[in-house]
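ENTRY TYPE: protein
CONTENTS: sequence, structure tokens:
***
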Amino acid sequence: MKTLIAACFALLLVGCQTPQFPSHPLVYSGGDGSSCERAVVIGGANCREAGTLAISRWLEQSYPDAQGKSVSAMNSAGRHYDLVEFTTTKGEGKTVYFDTTHCFGN
């Protein structure tokens, strides 16, 4: 039994990789994130994990006490978007759109 547990743990460690941090500085442009047209554009993130990190950093800076975050993805007009829904400290439900197209190498 101990061997089985040790083997499972070893497989988990092998499967977990340290995320690649972007070699270029993260850059935010675009709008306020209130819609696809006004999405926060993530630049400098060359992979999906770096894009996720960039989104987390933007949210922490803009809404430091956001609660109940959920993320969904969508494609529109050849672009990739992540939609993050959360509740502000004032109890307001909010959705922020992030254009993550560059995180996919497009």
Residues 1-22 have pLDDT under 50 and may be disordered. The longest strand covers residues 67-76. The two ends are 47 Å apart (CA to CA).
